[in-house]
Amino acid sequence: MIRKSDGGIRFCIDCRRLNAVTTKYGYPMPLIDAILDGFGDTRPFSTMGIVSGSWNVPMHEDSIVKTAFTGKYGLYEWLLMLFDLCNAANGNVRISRLTWYEYGKSSRDFEKLDLS
Asked: Are 97 and 90 contacting, i.e. CB atoms less than 8 angstroms apart?
């Protein structure tokens, strides 16, 4: 646990050892230059925010045990994606693209989104 700048508490997990033995997921991240070039002379008027994006993604059942850690009152496992996992960002982009396609949007429309 660490103290945040606003005085609250932040729960922290060090995923370096798990990331070191994880097979990296090679899904491509959008290139910001390509996204910005797609706007041409127009300016974006809206953004889509993803708050706690990883924590909205369930862990694969086989991976839950790999996230185990001990605390004062016992052993715990993460059921939702941790931000610090090496494949979390790429996985979120893939899920966003699949969701976007499900609603009938083109790849070009997706590239115009600000997913920061």
From this structure: no
Kindly report, residue by residue over 86-111, the tens digit of the pLDDT.
Answer: 888 888 888 877 776 666 655 555 55
Name the residue among 61, 49, 63 with its Cα closest to residue 96: 49
What is the pTM (predicted TM-score) of this model? Answer: 0.62
Domain count, the chain: 1
Does some domain include residue 107?
Answer: yes
- The token duo for 22 is 């994880």
Q: How far is CA 68 from CA 9, 47, 50, 91, 98, in A?
A: 21, 35, 26, 20, 29
For residue 70, being part of any structural domain is answered with yes
